[in-house]
Amino acid sequence: MVPYSQMIISGIALQNFRLHKNYFLKFTQKTTVVIGANAIGKTSIIEAVNLIATGNSFRAGKIDEMILFDEELSRVKGVIFDKEANLDSEIPTDEIEVILTRGVVNGKRTQHRLFSVNGVRRRKKDAIGKFHTVVFRPEDMRLIEGSPSRRRNYLNNVLSLMYSQYAIALKNYDQTLIRRNKLLQQVRERKQSKSVLQYWNLSLVKNGMILQKYRKEFLETFSGVEFPVKFTVEYDPSIISEDRIEQYLNNEISAGHTLIGPHKDDLIVFLEKNNRKLRLDAYGSRGQQRLGVLWLKFCELEYLKNQSELNTLLLLDDILSELDDDSKALALSVLENYQSVVTTTEPAVLEDIRQATDNIEVIYL
Questions:
Q1: Is there a contact between 323 and 290 (Cβ–Cβ < 8 Å)?
Q2: What are the beta bridge partners of residue 13?
Q3: Strands, DSSP E only, in 137-265?
Q4: Each residue of 1-13: pLDDT tens digit?
Q5: Residue 67 DSSP label
Q6: Which residues lie across from 315 on neighbouring strands?
Q7: In sequence order, what are the residues at sequence separation of 6 or more whose Cβ sits closer than 8 angstroms to the Cβ of residue 6?
Q8: What's phi and psi for 34, nearest 5 deg?
Q9: Distances in whole angstroms, Cα of residue 239 to Cα of each of 55, 163, 204, 205, 270
Q10: Which domains does the chain have, with CATH numbers?
Q11: pLDDT digits over 169-221, tens only?
């Protein structure tokens, strides 16, 4: 086993989680490679590790989706080590458990998510956040050429877990946006006067300005990230202020929804080559776009390393087959720096991983 100083999580247990009735995985090496066919539960392992870190799923629309069919609840338990713990000890720092339910257990109503640390029930905010995760999935390959909402989610996922102020502002902004849009429709239909919008306008501006401040500062750090190919990013905010709310108000009433604000923000990635800037979403090749996504993930890793005292776990979910040889080598180059879980359908990928790191454990599903 590698030294505990290089480990974040030493084991994870799944009960009735997705396809896994009862499954336990012990992490004994810095890099764990899970090999198996499609639809056998590889991604579920990565999802469960991320659940321990964040309390959320990166792919489930509803909690029910994570519970094995015909079961009332599922459990995910992770054994983690703290950065400041006695690393020579076999005793883990924390045992974190997440219980997921359909809302009813044994005929009694209950919460959909329950958290505990070392067997003691905790609130979500007190149970999670022991370490960071960076997840790289095939779906992320569309981060650059996909919809702006994908890129906003990229920003929100990182910043919500890093900063409670951002998470609170995002929740308030989304709730305000829903309420304000309903009122805009009612004002348009002459069922309400403009005055009902005043409170919601102020709330939208207050929380929207917080979101845009954090987003701007986050993206500004990308310029300092070393990468073999020169990429740059530009923040394209839909600026929100009291003046702009007033400026657009009549148009918003006519449209029946909010036209400006962080829910319209975007980021644009450029490839710099031969003293020219190529807009990657519009003019980049498929290979260049995928390399640009990899750069964004590198920037996320660097940001977490520089801005947080917590360790980061790298989760690569079947993305190596999506990359060309050069991009694959780049993706694997970070394995020496982070505890990682890598899933793949291709045993041949093992040779590529072994060239990047010697600390490998292979699990076959």
A1: yes
A2: 24, 77
A3: 231-236
A4: 555 556 899 999 9
A5: B
A6: 135, 341
A7: 30, 339, 359
A8: -105, 120
A9: 31, 21, 12, 10, 22
A10: 4-131+311-364 (3.40.50.300), 148-283 (1.20.1050.90)
A11: 999 999 999 999 999 999 999 999 999 999 999 999 999 999 999 999 999 99
